[in-house]
Amino acid sequence: MPLLARTVNTPLAIEVRRGALAELGRLLADQRISSGGEVAVVVGHGQGERIAELIKPNLGNADIFTVAGGTLAAANELGSKLRRRSYDAVVGIGGGKTLDTAKYAASAYGLPMVSVATNLAHDGIASPVSSLDHDGVRRSYGVHIPIAVVVDLDFVEHGPDRQTRSGIGDAISNLNAVADWELAHATRGEPLDGLAITLARTGAEALINHPGTLGDDDFLTVLAEALILGGIAMAVSGSSRPASGGCHEISHALDLLYPDTGTHGEQVGMGALFCTYLRGDEHRFRQISDCLKRHGLPRVPADLGLTDEQFAEAVSYAPATRPDRYTILEHLALSPEQVRARVKEYVNAVCG
Ligand SMILES: [Zn+2]
Q1: How many angstroms separate the CA atoms of 222 and 352, rounded?
Q2: What is the pTM of this model?
Q3: Cα separation of 234 and 232, whole Å?
Q4: How remote is the CA of residue 22 from the centroid of ligand 1, in Å?
Q5: What pLDDT sits at residue 154?
Q6: Burial of 315 by CB count in 10 Å (0-12 exposed, 13-18 middle, 19+ buried)?
Q7: How far is the CA of 170 from the centre of ligand 1 (A)?
Q8: How remote is the CA of residue 10 from the centroid of ligand 1, in Å?
Q9: pLDDT for 196 beyond 90
Q10: How far is the CA of 88 from the centre of ligand 1 (A)?
Q11: Spatial separation of the C-alpha atoms in residues 173 and 43, rounded to whole Å
């Protein structure tokens, strides 16, 4: 019988637990990524020294690079340093910016990248996408998916709660991204990828009704796994589609119009709630609203320090940030006046 299946590139290893960082050398050896610890370790400012101390006993041959990450220039500079020696892999340790810088540099030089997340702020921990600033504009670059993903809950626990909360918003927004994708399929015949949808939605579904808080290991594990599944869903579909819909268009518009308003996860979580409202899915709207409220995430513009007018302006601008992506925003094609009216109704619906 022929076995009809497809081959999917996923990380070789996924570990979510406490104390993972101290055992990184073992993981690299066990997975045959690096038997002697000949790796380039990339860390951000601040946590770098503590991390270097922890991994030294097992990764004696590693070189440690500190990056002031998040820019294409920093990633290219790191890349030029990677050429000086023959490394088995690049190990990025830290949060989004450090990981994105390491991912891009490793991909550009054909080296496998091990992602060690010390916070759960967004789904970049396991995605084949690197988000970097260049000339004042943030762009997403396609890169190889990490060869291994490690989340050390000891670090996550001691990191700022705001970052971890943000990850909840990013993971939950996958529900909206998938709904937008299904809308594009129904309206325009855009092909769906059932496996990518399964991965993206399952993680978010596990999270949305989870009664735990940021203080529980089991909740943090479900959050980490939801973010990882979102990243793998992107790799499966070869696109950010399963994890980025109208919610992300609104967030990109906020970044452009009102820089530094909120974190990525705060903005896409609220964007997802607003798009779900526009879609008229009452059950999902209540579910997402309750989840955001339970974890102290913003739901209305005022929670982000914005006026309803400012938020409406971002919603009107949102489709222009991603012209090729069909979402509920492009589907409804509301006039600025209609957007203002819907934002007003939305705020009443959330608060009422
Ligand atoms: Zn996102």
Answers
A1: 30
A2: 0.94
A3: 5
A4: 29
A5: 93
A6: buried
A7: 5
A8: 19
A9: yes
A10: 30
A11: 28
Using CA atoms, how far apart are residues 170 and 157, in angstroms rounded to an integer?
Answer: 18
C-alpha of residue 127 to centroid of ligand 1, in Å: 10
Calculate how far, in angstroms, residue 186's C-alpha sits from the geometric centre of ligand 1.
24
CA distances to 97, 105, 258, 268, 344 from 352, rounded to whole Å, are 38, 48, 27, 22, 12
Residues 121 and 164: beta-carbon distance below 8 Å? yes
**Domains located in the chain, CATH noted:** 13-158 (3.40.50.1970), 166-208+240-351 (1.20.1090.10)
Distance 289 CA to ligand 1 centre (A): 18
Span 98-122, average pLDDT: 95
Cα 269 to ligand 1 centre (Å): 9
CB 257 within 8 A of CB 313: yes
Radius of gyration of the chain from Cα atoms?
20
Tokens of residue 111, six digits: 């080296």
How far apart are the CA of 111 and the centre of ligand 1, in A?
Answer: 25
Residue type, 159: G
What distance in angstroms lies between residue 124's CA and the mean position of ligand 1's atoms? 8
